[in-house]
Amino acid sequence: MPDIVHVTYQQTGKSKSTNELGMREMQQKAFEARTAQYLLIKAPPASGKSRALMFIGLDKLINQGIKKVIVAVPERSIGSSFAKTELKKHGFFADWTPNPKYNLCTPGGEQSKVKAFLEFLDTDEQILICTHATLRFAFEAIDEKQLNDCLLAIDEFHHVSVDGDNKLGLVLSNVMSKSNAHVVAMTGSFFRGDSVPILLPEDEEKFTKVKYDYYQQLNGYNYLKSLGIGYHFYQGRYTSAINEILDENKKTIVHIPSVNSGESTKDKYEEVNRIVDSLGDLEYQDPDTGVLYVKSAKSGRTLKIADLVHDNPKDRDKIQEYLRNVKSVDDIDIIIALGMAKEGFDWPYCEHALTVGYRGSLTEIIQIIGRATRDSENKTHSQFTNLIAQPDAEDDLVKLSVNNMLKAITASLLMEQVLAPNWKFKPKFPEEEEQDTDEDDGTIKIRGFKLPSSQRAKDIIESDLNDLKAKIMQDDQMLKAMPGNVDPEVINKVLIPKIIKETYPDLSNEEVEAVRQHVVVDSVFKNGTIEEQGDKRFIRMADSFVNIDNINIDLIDTINPFQKAFEILSKSVTASVFKAIQETIDATRITMTEEEAIILWPKIKNWIAKTGEQPSVQSFDPQERRLAEAIIFLKEAKRKAAANE
């Protein structure tokens, strides 16, 4: 199946070049905000967040009166990202020199690590590195005021949540309310993949946000030129289909499905064996490194494979140590993992991230894609492929399969939005010149476009747009709208503002409308294609081809933001599967609202005027069926109103 998303980059080298202090572009942006008490850094994998924290932490220790820096990471392997680092030789005023004694990302029980954490607070040592788990356990034994004049840095901040059962979220809330500690939060995505927010709105507003886009990062590489995102659908067991897309000539990380998922065979070790067998014959496993040496059935060459699925601690420590010290493109060919090799895992040579099974968390998808988007001289193209089960109309779990497929496709469309270059949008007034677009700064002027009237709305548009899109595109009602059975204006004017209000209940109607317009316009332009014809520029949006000089918000509101997803579905699955998808969604159709019916009424009249007939609820055209349902709804509403009178 061809890529759903294919993005090309200019290889400018800008994101990897450094200034006189040894800082990359993202690190410079973060360092400019170094005096903030609460700082949130949102930047993609491989952009240098770890070193940005070192720069900020050292400045706080030396110039801002902070006495200690505590760095918390989600798992032990990521602790190495914060190891001793020479910064002075690159122009910075100090080196990052943590005492190995207080690097608690080492083997051992939590009890001894908590003891070391408490000891650290009473010493003159300045830097401690630990896991999220150690931080949680340590907070059961200390008073928050012991963190006065300390900096708490939380890596992979999306692990935090305001859910009452999320202990890391409780730790953060208490630190902010009961101490004067500074906080630096770092994440590649602020979206957890569930309905629970990371921070309460009143806490979130306290953070100064530094955002560095995925496109800025990848466009500024030296070697990587393109990134593809695609899906491959299978029936039966994935282990019999994986050899169709697992290319031994590409450095690949394979993530097999969770044993609790529908795609799993429930025997993860046997799944690894089958993947290895599909590649060739196992010759031997190196007793010192744990590397599997497999003779390829296709080429006859020897493949080096790492198995991170088997959980024997001794064997896993061996292979993890080997992977940490990979220095050459020839050191490993394929890594097979389950829960590992995601966040913070660094294998720059990786070309292909092959993930089996639907992933519910968009953050997890971003993290997995990030394993393949490191810049390395061995590749010009990176690929993410999701191998997912095709819904079977005869299967009792068809509803679950359909939902997973829809969420997987919308996740890829969101990634396209994340990976695309950013536009700026402004209102266009009648007295202005015809030319809409300022090519120098990528600004497009739109008639009827509304700018945000408050700083709160501006901040959401500036910093949270992709995360808000994630919430919108993974909403159950929006998923049911995907196969073209809901009018575009209803999607844009009813469903999207409803989700914005639920996400930001403090916004006024005017603020919601400004945010809504930015979401819709940004989505339509990033899903569209801009073409030049002579001195004019046109945008192809779904079924429309429009001169940019004539663009207006009313026209954009008639564009279905899910049009591309609908096309993907209709082209990539069989007719019987597509019918099963539509029938499944029809069975759980969204309830008709008065707002939707009002918007559809003029379209109903136009339909009758053109065809001479009322739209039929039995029609094969999903939009005609929805118009027919609107008539039924309006008749019923009129009947109820008459009865009440």
Automatic annotation (TrEMBL):
Any one GO molecular function term: nucleic acid binding
Pfam families xref list: DEAD (PF00270)
Keyword Nucleotide-binding attached: yes
Keyword Magnesium appears in the UniProt entry: no
Family annotation (PROSITE patterns): HELICASE_ATP_BIND_1
SUPFAM superfamilies: P-loop containing nucleoside triphosphate hydrolases (SSF52540)
Helicase ATP-binding domain span: 30-208
InterPro entries: DEAD/DEAH_box_helicase_dom, Helicase_ATP-bd, P-loop_NTPase
Record keywords: ATP-binding, Helicase, Hydrolase, Nucleotide-binding
Domain of life: Bacteria
Listed name of the protein: DNA/RNA helicase, superfamily II
Species in which this protein is naturally found: Galbibacter orientalis DSM 19592
